[in-house]
Design a protein that fits this description.
The complex is a heterodimer of chains A (130) and B (255). Chain A has a single domain, classed as RNA polymerase II/Efflux pump adaptor protein, barrel-sandwich hybrid domain (OB fold (Dihydrolipoamide Acetyltransferase, E2P)), CATH 2.40.50.100. Helix content of chain A is 18%, strand content 38%. Chain A has a six-stranded antiparallel β-sheet with strand order 1-2-3-9-8-5. A three-stranded antiparallel β-sheet of chain A has the order 4-6-7, with no helix packed on it. In chain A, a hairpin with a 4-residue loop joins strand 1 and strand 2. The longest helix of chain A has 11 residues. Chain A is globular, with a radius of gyration of 14 Å. The two termini of chain A are 24 Å apart. In chain B, a hairpin with a 2-residue loop joins strand 8 and strand 9. Chains A and B meet through strand 4, strand 6 and strand 7 of A and helix 4 and strand 9 of B.
Amino acid sequence: MNAEELMYCPTHEWVSTTGENGETIATIGISAFAVEQLTDLVYMELPDVGNQVVAGQEFGEVESVKAVSPMYSPVSGEVIAVNDELTDQLETLNDDPYTAGWIMKVKLSGVLPDNLLDFAAYQKQCAESS
Amino acid sequence: MDAQAGLTFPEMRLILDPPQSGSWNMAVDEMLLLAAQVNKQAVLRLYQWNPATLSLGYFQSYEEAQNHECAQQVPWLRRSTGGGALLHDQELTYSLIFPSQYLASQQISHVYDLVHKSLIDTLQQFDIQATTANAKQTSDDQQNSFLCFQRRCPCDVVLRDFKIAGSAQRRCRNYVLQHGSILTGQSVFAPDLPGIHELSNSDMNADTLQSVWVPNLRKLFDTVFIEKPLTDEEKRATTALQDSKFKADTWNMKR
């Protein structure tokens, strides 16, 4: 996926949506900036398929450099897929955070929240925080 | 960038606690982290452990602990912070709770480095020459050791090639809990890990280190310490967290 076409949470998760059979499916991951800031990722805990996630609430956790950090869901809905291969191959997040590094797919229960940032706004936030 | 820039506080709460159980200590740190979301207060707490306790890193397996000799001899629990297992016995522990917007850099190791540099400077006042670790000299086996003090990362503090201090974090939306252990002496439960006392042939102990380090930490954070023990309400909240989380199998055996 093209990073410039994604939407972003202020907490560094990205989201892309597609329509499938009348449903909106969101694919979610964490940004290259977040991966760079976290440095060496060693563990990741993902939600189970079937879990409900809520926009702005935690859906999983990562550990890097002995720090445990939450990941926040950009959307609300039901988890319909998780990237199980990722937990054993976290280097994928460094190599390809926007395609092979997807984390979960969520069937939206509503519309996209209006607090998501486009690429330019997210880049501006990253520049201000680094 | 000035390494110290961005981690100064006009005022910090200082808590100097007596030795307490592991579940109490972890519950206090979590209570303070949760409270910080509301009261917006930066906190420095220094404490010790009684009885000696083994703490697992957040992502470590409970079964791994069962295979380790330490877990047969002392109480154990799971921390909310990352890293490897720690045998808390002859040590001084610090916890630092601060808003993440105070960070000049979001880099995690930035705050480890700041606190560890202050520790190294403090030990120099005792003519003890500690340094940060050279992680490149360590093997994969060491990096994956069960015990944190047998691992190395570049920000760890070492003395005569033995790790004597390391830190870990739990990050929430707006606040960070960083805590770290300084191995002041060797534990009978982990005889392979000498502390500052043995490595420097000095009479170093946790109380001595604390008395000299606290003023140096005040300078590091360019702050005014307001010493304030836990209130009765905070003790009740801590007890509730202790019972529901750090004494509970659902937490300690969650993986």
